[in-house]
Design brief:
5 helices, alpha+beta, 46% helix, 6-stranded mixed sheet, 173 residues, SH3 type barrels
């Protein structure tokens, strides 16, 4: 379930931690969709560098905001998708075995689910390849993920308190 703007607003200006409790950076902005679900979190990681991480990587744990590694989020999504497809495939086999669906319908649906499983297998390989490659430190990886196109003037405004979010709205300047 996505985090809402109301749930995360209190973390603005506070530290963001990695899963091991180390400070990753400071939350300086929040992006949300029309349903107030978080789509991105702007982070100052130090040395004047800013990054925006996808909202699905951020979790609230006790009274802290935690940034999950990309591979962990992808692995969890994979697990959920794989569970759904395999359960549907078992249900389809059961329906066919008791004669509740016709053979041609069964074969078409089975092929669709087998194609989905093959796609998931390639996704699994991609996740495993990501996990098996030598890692850079988490700060470097996050910075490379999605560095925000911020100008030095914007950074100076934020540091001086004239700008409070990562919004591109110029009415705050």
């Amino acid at each position: 379930m996505p985090i809402t703007l109301e749930e995360i607003r209190r973390f603005l200006g506070r530290p963001l931690q990695d899963p091991y409790g180390r400070t990753f950076g400071k939350v300086v902005g929040i992006s949300a969709n029309l349903k107030d679900e978080i789509t991105g979190v702007g982070i100052e990681v130090g040395n004047g560098e800013f990054v925006q991480c996808p909202g699905d990587r951020v979790k609230i744990s006790a009274d802290t905001l935690v940034l999950a590694p990309t591979w962990k989020v992808e692995a969890e999504e994979f697990r959920k998708e794989f569970d759904v497809v395999t359960r549907r495939l078992r249900a389809l086999d059961e329906l066919f075995s008791v004669g509740d669906i016709q053979k041609d319908v069964y074969e078409d649906m089975r092929k669709q689910h087998e194609d989905a499983i093959n796609e998931l297998k390639s996704k699994r390989k991609s996740i495993l390849d990501t996990c098996s490659t030598p890692r850079e430190n988490s700060m470097t990886r996050a910075t490379k993920l999605s560095a925000m196109p911020l100008t030095p003037a914007w950074s100076a405004q934020w540091r001086s308190g004239k700008r409070s979010t990562l919004s591109s709205d110029t009415s705050q300047s």
